[in-house]
UniProtKB/TrEMBL annotation:
<dbReference type="GO" id="GO:0002376">
    <property type="term" value="P:immune system process"/>
</dbReference>
<dbReference type="GO" id="GO:0033754">
    <property type="term" value="F:indoleamine 2,3-dioxygenase activity"/>
</dbReference>
<keyword id="KW-0391">Immunity</keyword>
<comment type="similarity">
    <text>Belongs to the indoleamine 2,3-dioxygenase family.</text>
</comment>
<dbReference type="InterPro" id="IPR037217">
    <property type="entry name" value="Trp/Indoleamine_2_3_dOase-like"/>
</dbReference>
<dbReference type="GO" id="GO:0034354">
    <property type="term" value="P:'de novo' NAD+ biosynthetic process from L-tryptophan"/>
</dbReference>
<dbReference type="GO" id="GO:0046872">
    <property type="term" value="F:metal ion binding"/>
</dbReference>
<dbReference type="InterPro" id="IPR000898">
    <property type="entry name" value="Indolamine_dOase"/>
</dbReference>
<keyword id="KW-0349">Heme</keyword>
<dbReference type="Pfam" id="PF01231">
    <property type="entry name" value="IDO"/>
</dbReference>
<dbReference type="GO" id="GO:0020037">
    <property type="term" value="F:heme binding"/>
</dbReference>
<feature type="binding site" description="proximal binding residue">
    <location>
        <position position="340"/>
    </location>
    <ligand>
        <name>heme b</name>
    </ligand>
</feature>
<dbReference type="GO" id="GO:0005737">
    <property type="term" value="C:cytoplasm"/>
</dbReference>
<keyword id="KW-0479">Metal-binding</keyword>
<dbReference type="GO" id="GO:0004833">
    <property type="term" value="F:L-tryptophan 2,3-dioxygenase activity"/>
</dbReference>
<dbReference type="GO" id="GO:0019441">
    <property type="term" value="P:L-tryptophan catabolic process to kynurenine"/>
</dbReference>
<keyword id="KW-0560">Oxidoreductase</keyword>
Amino acid sequence: MDTTITDTQKPFSLDPYHVSEEFGFILPAPLAELPPYYQPWMDIAQHVTELIYSHMLRSHILKMPLLNTQLLESHRELRLAHLALGVMTMGYVWQEGEDDTVKMLPRNLAIPYCEVSQRLGLPPILTHADAILANWRKRDPQGNLELLVTLPGGDSVRGFFMVTLLVELAAVPAIKSIPLVINGVQCGDAETVTRALEEFSQAIQGMTDALKLMHVYVKPEVFYGIMRIYLSGWKDNSSMPAGLVYEGVQAEPMEYSGGSAAQSSLLHCFDELLGVKHEAMSGAFLTRMRNYMPPSHKRLIQDISLQPSLRGFVQQQACEPLTAAFQLCVTKLLALRNYHINVVSLFIIVPAARARQLRNQGNISQEETVSRAPRALEEKGTGGSDIMSFLKTVRDRTRDVFNLK
Ligand code: HEM
């Protein structure tokens, strides 16, 4: 067996993909302020929640000046601008709930938002890359974290964004072990691959442990009844069947899916590495979600998929510790997906059933928070998927990897 990387095969490295050694896909040290010229945006973005509650957000946005985006220079400035314009857009569309949405985003928001989106290669809607990866700062020298901008839902919205950030952070050792695995396979070095896969599986366990904090910091009825609508998009959403016109950009409406951790690059990378092959419909949804990621992260997923098969290598080596380490990775990924299904059940399926029950009883009072939830999203995820069948199919295809024969 050849144990060296040949001259033509450069070692695989994370360097070209804007992935940080310390933070993985999380944007390191996001900016909290834009240059002073953009203060009219930040003044609104930092008060979106209060302005939604007072029903004043739309009128503030309509009075906002149309700003030139050319003064935004660095990647970090663009990311903060995309986040700020994103929360304004979600608030503008959903301020009055699902029964009084808008058909058009006004030009003074739509034009700069589309320009910034184009420069970043992101869609003009709030994404996981905005709300989670670029929405944090250290509050104190002890390293406690806080959000830069928020949406309605109080402590639960903070908890939801922060716990998701902690899941991304827990995954960093797994991301770092990807080049070790790929290069080890290239060199036929079973021992290195085994060690890297052991690291990898431990990190997935860390992600599941972090996900468990969702129950501590997020109230299901607040998530379901208040927050979720502000993460929803205008594709596959019956309350905005025609999509949204971005005034001054194009006359035809555009359709975009809402924010979802299905847009996190983590599990996409893991699936490609471990050889999880998705079924056609769920695979198409997940592939579409890659268009909601920073382009360099999307490229990393694609490049992992082009590497020689790890699963094939494990089969071919028939080496007990390697096979065990590989199987453990699949076990841990399966456990993470199973746990996530429980979370979804608690945060969406159970409150949706309660909301339906109240409606059937003719009890449409706003006293129970779940009653305020939009009906259009009862069966759907914020990304627009048919939740449970989608998640279970994805889980079952993960299980298929066990079959090494
Ligand atoms: C209250 C917490 C959460 C809820 C209610 C939730 C809900 C959902 C829903 C409904 C979907 C289906 C796709 C869509 O239409 O959006 C989904 C997909 C997904 N979610 Fe979550 N999610 C939560 C937290 C998280 C966290 C913290 C992560 C980890 C970063 C995560 C990772 C994923 C992934 C990777 C998918 C795509 C399916 C897969 O690859 O297994 N979710 N989630």
